[in-house]
Amino acid sequence: MRYISTRGDAPALGFEDVLLTGLARDGGLYLPETWPTFSPDEISAMAGLSYPELALVVMTPFVGEEIPEAEFAELINEAYAQFDHQAVAPLRQLDHNEWLMELFHGPTLAFKDFALQLLGRLLDRTLSKRGTRATIVGATSGDTGSAAIEACRDRDAIDIFILHPKGRVSEVQRRQMTTVTSANVHNIAIEGTFDDCQAMVKAMFNNLEFRDEIKLSAVNSINWARVMAQIVYYFHAAIALGAPHRKITFSVPTGNFGDVFAGYCARQMGLPIEQLIVATNRNDILACFFQTGSYAKGTVHPTLSPSMDIQVSSNFERLLFDMEDRDGDRIRALMAALDQSGEFDVDAARLADSQKLFTGLAVDEEQTLAAIRQVGETTGTAVDPHSAIGVAAGRLARRDAASPMVTLATAHPAKFPDAVEKATGSRPDLPARLADLMDRPEHYDVMPNDLAAVMAKVRETAKITSKGISS
Questions:
Q1: Tens digit of pLDDT for each residue in 353-397?
Q2: pLDDT at 463
Q3: Strands, DSSP E only, in 302-394?
Q4: Are 27 and 338 in contact (CB under 8 A)?
Q5: According to the model, what pLDDT value does residue 141 have?
Q6: Helix or strand holding residue 257 (H, E)
Q7: Which residues contact 26 (CB under 8 A, 6 or more apart)?
Q8: Nearest CA to 227 among 305, 314, 169?
Q9: Residue 466: its pLDDT value, please?
Q10: DSSP class per residue in 14-82
Q11: CA diameter of the chain
Q12: Cβ atoms 186, 161 nearer than 8 A
């Protein structure tokens, strides 16, 4: 398997190089050169596999021969042994033909664990094999940071820096990051928005001298391996509900578009997905795009669902690449327009084609609280505000009631206790292993929204130099 950049000016790479590279050197994102596919018979044969067994089958085409199958299977088994539920991604029925897929049974109680528990192991294996180190710099709107830290803490070949927007993540999310005491973990609170944090990370990757000097690598969903691992749970849910003999609808709460893009990848691989509902909060750039064809940056508004308080969705470029017939020149032009004017448009024919699969819908704060309340009252199940947005959007935008609908429950309700309590009057408890989280001491730096200052901080703190010597 070879990987190509969405902007067409970076060399094609194999899996391990893409894993370590993250963002392509031309500023684009890597994608498989061709989509591997499974026939209906091959999908049928996946029924009955455990989650790790299914993950091995679905992801092996992306890895090819770069990791021996037995070794890859061992890494997968280790990653998902960290989850609290034997099914790893259990399905909970909400109504007739409506389901929640619980993606919060991992170590940090969010769907990001599915990719990052594996990614941390893949990075450590590849770096150790090559006898080198890496400095990971990532941005988080709440969940990626803690999942990345948990996956990379205490790993000898990695230093990890996570940027989060000061005051714009929940207290539980922040403490899951800042109470980790491992020497290779560094937290920075940026006085700005998530988009500011994400822009800093991209700017560091686009500074090739800095990138090479500190051996920069990525755990954000700009890293293809993140998306690859998330494809698996679409197969898991769809097969459990009758695929390939039935088409399935998914409603996906999303801000950075990585989670729902994994559903698109699954469909490209042959999974019969009828509809992908792109559920957003009032930061509705994605919902507006799928309604109008215009992608236009606005102001980031704080909401009850802070992980979705995003206006520039990194992974959307990957979908746009396919929408524009994999024309790197066209993608460069569209991204330049976004940088210069804050917006771009696609033509009506391409929009209409995308609307055959995607439906975008924004859910406001009152609708979010109502969905949390309604699900709790009718099923006894507590849902966090992000998952509630998925439920609400799915019920409003679903096209075919005969198609089983799965909403991705992306975080444990106890990560957002204030919102759940506001909706239901009841405050969800953290699992026993995190019961003392609010009492643990925090360790993090607060820095201004200043790229040069943050780069200097990373350079000074990282253990490696351009010669690979520990400081």
A1: 999 999 999 999 999 999 999 999 999 999 999 999 999 999 999
A2: 62
A3: 343-345, 358-362
A4: no
A5: 86
A6: none
A7: 5, 7, 8, 9, 10
A8: 314
A9: 36
A10: -HHHHHHH-B-TTS-BEEESS-----HHHHHTTTT--HHHHHHHHHHHHHTTSS-HHHHHHHHHHHHTT
A11: 61
A12: yes
Helix (H, G, I), strand (E, B) or coil at 252: strand
Element (H, E) at 111: none
Task: Check: CB of residue 264 under 8 Å from CB of residue 344.
Answer: no
User: What is the distance between the alpha carbons of residues 29 and 282, in angstroms, rounded to a whole number?
Assistant: 27
* Whether 312 contacts 300, CB under 8 Å: no
3-state secondary structure of 331: helix
Say whether 202 is catalytic: no
Asked whether the beta carbons of 246 and 403 are under 8 A apart, the reply is yes
Residue by residue, what is the 3-state secondary structure of 175-213?
A: HHHHCCCCCCEEEEEEECCHHHHHHHHHHHHHCHHHHHH
Quick one: CA torsion of 161, 165, 171, 175, rounded to 10 degrees?
10
Report the CATH fold assignment for 79-107+224-424. Answer: Rossmann fold (3.40.50)
d(CA 353, CA 407): 23
Residues found in the chain: 471
**C-beta neighbour count of 411 within 10 angstroms:** 27
* Integer Cα distance of 64 and 449 in angstroms: 41
Best CA proximity match to 323, nearest among 344, 343, 295, 352: 352
Are 365 and 60 spatial neighbours (Cβ–Cβ below 8 Å)?
no
143: part of which helix (H) or strand (E)?
A: helix 143-152
List of residues 6+ apart from 471 with CB closer than 8 A: 462, 463, 464, 465
Low-confidence residues in the chain, pLDDT < 70: 463-471
Strand segments, DSSP code E, in 200-319 are: 216-217, 248-253, 273-280, 294-296
Give domain limits for the chain: 79-107+224-424
pTM over 0.90: yes
Q: In this structure, are residues 462 and 159 in contact, taking their beta carbons and an 8 Å threshold?
A: yes
Query: How far is it, in rounded angstroms, from Cα 427 to Cα 434?
Result: 15
- The catalytic position among 112, 166, 215, 415 is 112
Closest by Cα among 307, 280, 279, 256 to 415 = 307
Please give the pLDDT value at position 471: 34
Whether cis (ω within 30° of 0) applies to the bond prior to 61 is no
DSSP assigned state of 432: G
For 438-461, the pLDDT digits (tens) are 999 999 999 999 999 999 999 999
The encoded tokens of residue 389 equal 């947005």
In whole angstroms, how far apart are CA 434 and each of 17, 154, 309, 431, 454? Answer: 36, 19, 25, 6, 30
